[in-house]
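FIELD: query
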Amino acid sequence: MRYDDEPVFRRSKWGTNRYYYNPNNPIGLALIVITLVFTATMVILMVNRAGPFKPETANTPWSPPPYTHSWPPPSSAPTPWPT
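FIELD: result
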């Protein structure tokens, strides 16, 4: 196959130690496409504030439960058993 001698990553020719995907290799080209699709999807989700970027729903303020107990509280002493 003609792509056998092409590496997946190539060293940048700009004088840095960075690598880039090689579009002459099928795996490198697939990585380029996957990266572009993933990035576009995440940007669309961020713009629409959907998915993991969805804001939390506004919680209603806390309100205590209605008071249903009478005063004084019941005695903690055991009630006598009928004999």
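FIELD: remark
Residues 26-48 form the longest helix (23 residues).
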